[in-house]
Automatic annotation (TrEMBL):
Record-linked InterPro entries: Thioredoxin-like_fold, Thioredoxin-like_sf, THIRX-like_proc
Listed NCBIfam families: redox_disulf_2 (TIGR00412)
Domain Thioredoxin-like fold: 1-75
SUPFAM superfamilies: Thioredoxin-like
Disulfide bonds: C10-C13
Keywords assigned by UniProt, alphabetized: Disulfide bond, Redox-active center
Calcium listed as a keyword: no
Catalytic residues (positions): C10, C13
Pfam families named among the record's database cross-references: Thioredoxin_3 (PF13192)
Record protein name field: Small redox-active disulfide protein 2
Length: 85
């Protein structure tokens, strides 16, 4: 699984990254986290508001800092859909 944090490197982007790392640690899910700060790459995802969370090339959240529980719920949905296997 590859998780991307899209944003400018702002405080909210860093907080989303930290919350994602915490969620992975708590759930035992193994994933690579990549910070994407390049504006052209962020725009390629159709994201106009940051931070954004992308899981396996699917944009799952835009414009808000998700809490660890919210991230865990999204990850669980990804596994149920079979997209993160």
């Amino acid at each position: 699984m590859i998780i991307k944090i899209l944003g400018s490197g702002c405080k909210n982007c860093e907080t989303l990254k930290e919350n994602t790392e915490k969620t992975l640690k708590e759930t035992g899910i193994v994933a690579e986290i990549i910070k994407v700060n390049d504006l052209k790459e962020v725009m390629a995802y159709g994201v106009m508001s940051t931070p954004a969370l992308v899981i396996d090339e699917k944009v799952v959240s835009v414009g808000k800092v998700l809490k660890p529980k919210e991230i865990a719920k999204i990850l669980a949905q990804q596994f149920q859909e079979g997209e993160a296997l």
